[in-house]
Amino acid sequence: MDHVELYVTDWDDAASWYERVLGVTPETTFEEWWQTEVGPLMLSVDETTKLALFERESAVRGQEVSPHRIAFQTDVDGFLSFIDRLETLELTDRDGDPVTPDDVVDHELSYSIYFTDPDGNWLELTTNDYDEVATRLG
């Protein structure tokens, strides 16, 4: 996959949020696109798979404005570290309620946690390191 497109109301706010929560940063190769206000703002961790953020006034929290959900995969350490940081991340679910470690979903082959970005895009962090997560979550 090259990129996933999301609608956001403000590039700068969205870029800051995605960096703080998921560690993705602006892709300098495509900097010209968003500096000329044409877009998109490309974010990436590895310069391979990217998020393409498009500004759109009609991105409204709680309404589906982009793909149904985007799932990001991580290993056991990344997943558990994310769970440990939930309180400081102040993430919310689709209803606007706080996301807590109690919201981790056991899919019996993987673990996931679901949350939204500030524009209401529904996101998931998942890991397939099932046995190790199960052991460490105890």
From TrEMBL:
<keyword id="KW-0479">Metal-binding</keyword>
<dbReference type="InterPro" id="IPR037523">
    <property type="entry name" value="VOC_core"/>
</dbReference>
<dbReference type="GO" id="GO:0046872">
    <property type="term" value="F:metal ion binding"/>
</dbReference>
<dbReference type="InterPro" id="IPR004360">
    <property type="entry name" value="Glyas_Fos-R_dOase_dom"/>
</dbReference>
<dbReference type="InterPro" id="IPR029068">
    <property type="entry name" value="Glyas_Bleomycin-R_OHBP_Dase"/>
</dbReference>
<feature type="domain" description="VOC">
    <location>
        <begin position="1"/>
        <end position="128"/>
    </location>
</feature>
<protein>
    <recommendedName>
        <fullName>VOC domain-containing protein</fullName>
    </recommendedName>
</protein>
<dbReference type="Pfam" id="PF00903">
    <property type="entry name" value="Glyoxalase"/>
</dbReference>
<dbReference type="InterPro" id="IPR051332">
    <property type="entry name" value="Fosfomycin_Res_Enzymes"/>
</dbReference>
